[in-house]
Amino acid sequence: MNQKLIRYCFLSICAFCIVNCDALAAKNVKAPSGSPVLHMIAVHEGEPNKDNFDKYCRKATSETKGTPVTEAPRPSSIEMTRISGECVGVNRYREVKVNVSDKSAPLVLALNAYNFVTWIIKADRGVVIKKVILMGYHTQKITGLPNDVPVEAYTYEPSPCPKCWQGNWREDMDYFDAKEPPKELKGISDLPISTFQGRYTGGEFSIYTGMKRN
After folding, report:
1. For the chain, what is the radius of gyration of the CA atoms?
2. pLDDT tens-digit profile of 11-56?
3. Please, which residues have CB within 8 angstroms of residue 94's CB and are 6 or more apart in sequence?
4. Of 180, 129, 173, nearest to 151 (Cα)?
5. Cα(197)–Cα(31) distance, rounded to whole angstroms?
6. Among 61, 79, 80, 147, which is most exposed with the fewest C-beta within 10 angstroms?
7. How many whole angstroms separate alpha carbon 68 and alpha carbon 77?
8. Predicted confidence (pLDDT) per residue in 66-108, tens digit
9. Is the dihedral of CA 176, 182, 140, 196 positive or negative?
């Protein structure tokens, strides 16, 4: 038999096995059951992304002509503004990564930030996230969630996303304290807070089986 044909058949069989083994493994992963467990993470701001620096616009005036972009005043816009055609200013969303490996129960994640944050969810296979609650003042973004996970947003500035439901913001919902969560959370979640992690500037957090609970 032709060597190329033999190699092609071998690779095809290997590919078939890999795909079907993964599918079988996914079916055999037992979903956690029981009452949902609420985990909260709160930051004032996320970590800056070193690969995504701000570019500040400068006004086209004699005082600022020739001023380096990095020394120009920050625009007050939320995301992007053009000032006098000189340059484009970007107000960057800082990032917070949330690694989730707890498979002991269905999870509800409460994520709170005052400043603009993109929450990046990294969940292991078998983790069940029932819902995400976004809280804060400025607009929040979230990525990495399965399409069927609902998101409740309680932010002063709207936080739109495909599965987001915008709730009524209250002043203490953007309250940040690294020692305790906002009091309003218990009222909107109807769940006791199992774990709380708080930092002024935070870039990465983990939720795992066996965490010390409140």
Report:
1. 23
2. 555 555 444 544 434 444 455 668 899 999 999 989 876 554 444 4
3. 45, 46, 47, 48, 49, 115, 116, 117, 118
4. 129
5. 25
6. 147
7. 20
8. 444 444 444 443 334 444 444 444 556 889 999 999 999 999 9
9. positive
Q: Percent helix, strand, coil in the chain (nearest 5)?
A: 20, 35, 50
Instruction: Write the DSSP assignment of 176-200 as a string of letters.
Output: --TTS--THHHHHH-S-EEEEEEEE
Give the pair of three-digit tokens for residue 182: 């906002």
Alpha helix ranges (H) inside 48-200: 184-189
Alpha helices in 43-200 (DSSP H): 184-189
Q: In the chain, what is the straight-line distance between the N-terminal and C-terminal CA atoms, in Å? A: 67
d(CA 71, CA 61): 14
Residues listed for the chain: 214
The C-alpha atoms of residue 178 and residue 11 are separated, in whole angstroms, by: 54
> 45: which residues sit within 8 A by CB, 6+ positions away?
94, 113, 114, 115, 117, 200, 201
Q: Are 141 and 119 a contacting pair, CB within 8 Å?
A: yes
The pLDDT of residue 70 is 42
What pairs with residue 35 in β-bridges? none
